Task: structure prediction
Amino acid sequence: MAPPASDFFFVTCEHGGNRIPSRYHDFFRGHEELLRTHRGYDLGAIRVAREMAKALSAPLLVSTISRLLIDLNRSPSHPQLYSEATRAAPEDIRREIFRRYYRPYRTKAETQIAQAVASGMRVIHISCHSFTPELNGEVRNADLGLLYDPSRREEAALCQRWRTALRSSAQALKIRLNYPYTGTADGFTVYLRRRFTGNEYLGIELEINQKHVRQSPAHWHRLRETVITALQDALVQAPEALAPSWRSSGHTAFRAAPTPSNRERNT
Result:
């Protein structure tokens, strides 16, 4: 199949907030503190997603509903689709939550991708997430993770170029591929890969260590700028892609600030 005439960039954030609609507040009595932790949302992810979409001139789809209500990044059959707060809710309530929040989000994303593919474009989907520095007593040994399917050549190539660009401008950062999760574990990009071929769709999950979000505003801003600029550089370097309408701009080299104490855990 010939390379696509152009690439369609699409940015999403499935765990952008920790909002619980008032109708379901009673199910979260006793779980209020949990909503403010990594379990409730991906700290900082929505900020990255918004800035990345602006930089790429890409459509943006975000959810501010807490993953503890329903996890938009899980398949419908996953045992953790609902949290301990909603898993025991009456079946009609769980179906209602699925119908009101899960299905519209996933359908909107899939429809937008399908329309781009139908028009002859290749979709590059960046799903923005963050992870806790420590989980179950284990310190996560990475600043950034890029998740992809190794069997999809173009996904692997883009992530490798992105990592190379990051290493060039941010030597202080540790960037790992398919860490802290594998790119083929249950998730929205995995589902979308089943719907679209590797020539039609590239699905990359960006994972940022939340220790950077909790540092100074200047540090956090610098990291976001570095991540996004490196992605732009990686896209420009792609031999099969047409030159994008934007070009990455010069930016200050990233230098890691001292890491604060942080014992909060996240998925």
In short: Confidence is low (pLDDT under 50) at residues 1-5, 246-252, 257-266. The CA atoms of residues 146 and 177 lie 5 Å apart. The first helix runs from residue 32 to 35.
